[in-house]
Specification:
Strands 1, 2, 3, 4, 5, 6, 7 and 8 form an 8-stranded antiparallel sheet that branches. Strands 15, 17, 20, 21, 23 and 25 form a 6-stranded antiparallel sheet that branches. The two termini are 44 Å apart. The protein has 20 helices and 25 strands. A hairpin with a 5-residue loop joins strand 9 and strand 10. The chain is of the alpha+beta class. It is found in: Cytoplasm; Golgi apparatus. This is SEC14-like protein 1. One of its GO terms (biological process) is negative regulation of RIG-I signaling pathway. InterPro entries: CRAL-TRIO_dom (IPR001251), CRAL-TRIO_dom_sf (IPR036865), CRAL/TRIO_N_dom (IPR011074), CRAL/TRIO_N_dom_sf (IPR036273), GOLD_dom (IPR009038), GOLD_dom_sf (IPR036598), PRELI/MSF1_dom (IPR006797), SEC14/CRAL-TRIO_domain (IPR051064).
Amino acid sequence: MVQKYQSPVRVYKHPFELIMAAYERRFPTCPLIPMFVASDTVNEYKSEDEAIHVIERRCKLDIDAPRLLKKIAGVDYVYFVQKNSLNRRERTLHIEAYNETFSNRVIINEHCCYTVHPDNEDWTCFEQSASLDIKSFFGFESTVEKIAMKQYTSNIKKGKEIIEYYLKQLEEEGITFVPRWTPPVACKLESSASHTRRPVSPAINIPDSATKEGLNSKEILNTSSSPAEPTAGTPDDKLDADYIKRYLGDLTPMQESCLIRLRKWLQETHKGKIPKDEHILRFLRARDFNIDKAREILCQSLTWRKQHQVDYILDTWNPPQVLQDYYAGGWHHHDKDGRPLYVLRLGQMDTKGLVRALGEEALLRYVLSINEEGLRRCEENTKVFGRPISSWTCLVDLEGLNMRHLWRPGVKALLRIIEVVEANYPETLGRLLILRAPRVFPVLWTLVSPFIDDNTRKKFLIYAGNDYQGPGGLLDYIDKEIIPDFLGGECMCEVPEGGLVPKSLYRTAEELENEDIKLWTETIYQSASVFKGAPHEVLIQIVDASSVITWDFDVCKGDIVFNIFHSKRAPQPPKKDSLGAHSITSPGGNNVQLIDKVWQLGRDYSMVESALICKEGESVQGSHVTRWPGFYILQWKFHNMPACATTNLPRVDDVLASLQVSSHKCKVMYYTEVIGSEDFRGSMTSLESSHSGFSQLSAATTSSSQSHSSSMISRWRFC
């Protein structure tokens, strides 16, 4: 397996030239890197105006590996080749390194880049990426991989320290300023003119024979090739190392790399609707920084949030009065670590009465609103306390817990809530303090503990009776001044006291079922199943030409092909495919086929847009300006892998996708509407619908509320 690393942007608040002076002091050897024994210059080139300086070194490393492994490998030292391409004119240094030793067994590539900060020309930015691919190593592949990763991460941590060490050394020698490169007087005018036109240059690959053949700088610039991994992209797309430490906490280099790589993947597939970094980090932590596993559950959660409009729950949903009066829970200051503190008096809460009066879905929605409020409070506390706070503490008082709380429908609702919260709010619970646990508690714990993640269970602290008042109790986690009065503290707690829900508020099973279905289906998005040989199709009737059909869909499972067709005549009324039938509690999953099998493409209907292949996990927005009135059909079709693909090695993503797709079935979630051309603003490829937000979790979300407010009601039939 190929191991990859991508660093955040490291910022030095010093000019580029001074950083270069410090960097050069690392050679020929560096005492701060014990494994770096020596280096020899094997090739060097300087342009006539000294703007370009390319130097190639052979570096000797003493790897910290078991003596037995070195003996088996037959080497005491490992050699690397490093090529540094310095462009003083553009103020960039590109570094490329690869292993010379065991190059037929192990492939190591590293790319580093020093550039001027885009917003402050007196600061310098540094980035690096690397890859490790161990083909074979005498049966010790796993051991070599661990040693290599350990050595590399150790050197990454020292990187900034080394530059700062040599900066301090320069300062002690009285060197605090290094002048910028200026062109020679003879060619100053020509160089200045060309400088205004020349873009930032990439790493320059100098041919080995460059110095022998006497190529001048102009010829080299024209013949040089681009680096393997250019550092393209705007500064806003990248994470700063200082930002990570301030807002996300202390991460290891590999954890930083996982965050950056997953974030980059989301940027490429979700097209601007990127969750905030702390939210991405929660999913990575929940899967021990396994990118593939974290990506899978994150995509599922983002789809779930979008379908049920969870981002808007705090602004659009008002809890019923019954919940406000009888749900014995609420926010109460913060713990000693600055985490928001939520107090739940479960023993005083009538769970049976709440379920009978409101139903399971209303309780679930209320718990979701609590979690959304928790996310907001974490952000606020991060700003207040000046350190990253990404989770909250929950204090659960079980005094009064009895067999009534073990009522089966109530436990079922609790398990459902735990399942949803675990799937969509991982690593948000920093600590759970369970106080005054009665004898019946082990029964409840036996029922719910299998549904709680192992990492979450480790955060539980359980106190029986009044044990919480002794050593290791509440005072270790909560300041004395804010301990609630009902626990013997002096702070008045405004959490409702709960109590029995009046039976007059109970509702019949039929009323609760209808209410649950209403809450479940309160979404503008539709879900559909796509089968091999059975596409899903949506009909849109257009009366006025030049209308704009817009769409927004997520590929929840499998790979699909998206098409748009036009027909002058209406297709037959849709018939639901039996394969796509689902129960009423799962309103998505429909499958409708509108195009009759006897219809011929080009005669009965025509394709108006090129087919678009969409991979699992992708979020797609787009639009089509209609040229003719009539009937337009949006089609999502199962994507068959091309036959020739079997002869090539598959990508890791393709293998994972093939394992997840069963019975040739795909799932999509979509929303579409028709907008008048006079109301349309821009292209939907860059315009996000005001309904598809991710407003709570997105760091960069654009809205189109103005466009939505004036949009027309579309005339389409859903399956």
